[in-house]
Amino acid sequence: MATSALAFVVFATVIASYAGLIPLGHWQDEYLRFRLLELQSGNLASHFAGLLAWSPRPLSEFLIVGYGKLVLASRQQFIGPALAISWAVLAFSLLGTPILLSRGTPQSASARNRVLLAMSMFCLFLLCHPVSEMFYWPMAALAYVTCIAAIAALFWLLVLHSNESDTLRWIGAIAMTVAATAAEAGAIFVMAFCGMAILAEAIVVRQGTPLRPRLLWLALPLLVAACVVVSVYRGRVSMAQELLGDPAVAHHVLPVISKASLIFVGEMIAVDGREISIHSLSLGLVIKGLFFAGVFGTVGLRSGLSSPSQKRALAILSLACFVTSFVMICASLYQFGSSCCERHKTFRLCLDLLAFASAAALMAIVTGPGGGRTRRAGSGALFIGCLLASVLLAGYETAPKIVHDYRSYPAVLDGIAQNWKNGMSPGDALILRQWQGGVIGGPLRRDDTYTLENSDWWILSVMQFFKKKSVTFVTEDH
Known about the structure:
Structural class: mainly alpha
Number of strands: 3
Order of helices and strands: HHHHHHHHHHHHHHHHHEEHE
Strand content: under 5%
Radius of gyration: 23 Å
Strand order of the largest sheet: 1-3-2
Helix content: over 70%
Oligomer: single chain
Distance between the termini: 41 Å
Shape: globular
Number of domains: 2
């Protein structure tokens, strides 16, 4: 009980520390997107049509346009509320879903262990790798945090239940549809998961069980995901206008696969996908190994029998997460010639954690009660201790960045408010304060004055949004 109490306090502190930085979030592409939305305010159909040809993710685009309309109508940024919505969805998915789904089922771990497992996963989503884009940039959060939340809900659905119930199948179908329409990466995941699941169901047909009902819940999200992926390929990919890296790699299949394989293995093991070093690889191996052991143990503290379909589904879920990570790297290299961007790497690291968790849960179900083995009394504390150790190790690496951001909290919060006030004030010149954050932080530009003639597209979008003719960036040291 003492180990569980300590783990709860540590996990809650980590999550609260990161959530407390939500008001310090930032804008990136919002300046351009919301300016275009303002110019096309009388023709939303045209606006959506153009966006969907470039970024065909209807759910997140709907949320972003709604956010933009609110900003334009109120002349307020609402960064905190926009991010808080995404965080709340993730918190409900990770913490609320297992509690709701475990009611009345004998296949779940104890309520305490479920909550601690979910909290540790939330912590590791945040710790030890960059999160400023995916978790503190509204446009990215509305897409990628929503997407990972939907996949996490599917994880809990398959851990706590088999997919024998029609109701649970359709809950899973809804979760996958949300993932597919929130982000292109979610559509890739849904295609991988549903494709493999349909193949497995077609091969393993149970005697006297009609195949059609068991495939329909997979076919519908698969169709939605396929539409998204085809639209991306026919639109953005076919334009081939975003070369950012090596031209010898971009749009060359074999170099893409070769380079992607090395990046994929490094990210799967390393604690931070940006730095594939001995330190990052060894620390990642320890942290993810402890997490795997913790998931194995806490899921294994259960009673009851599992079905073959549950085991297949968990194996497919783990494999689909890894496949999605690899395809994302390939897609980035093919389109850009480099493995960009920060939010994509963060999303892949979250996917890898879900893949490890799914594999550990599968192993626990196979070897647990009904699989030939039982857990010894007192082993619960050991496995909760593994989850705690993984979070403490990851937190030790990140703690100085959190401390830095809280020390500069008042100054950064004042700077955000002052930047918006300067932008909304009359005049042709704009002064924007910027700072180097630890966890938080947006794009940094060289301190200088930029005009309409000497600006890149992002600086130009800032000027156009605020209707200015020049902008001066000033970096502050907090």
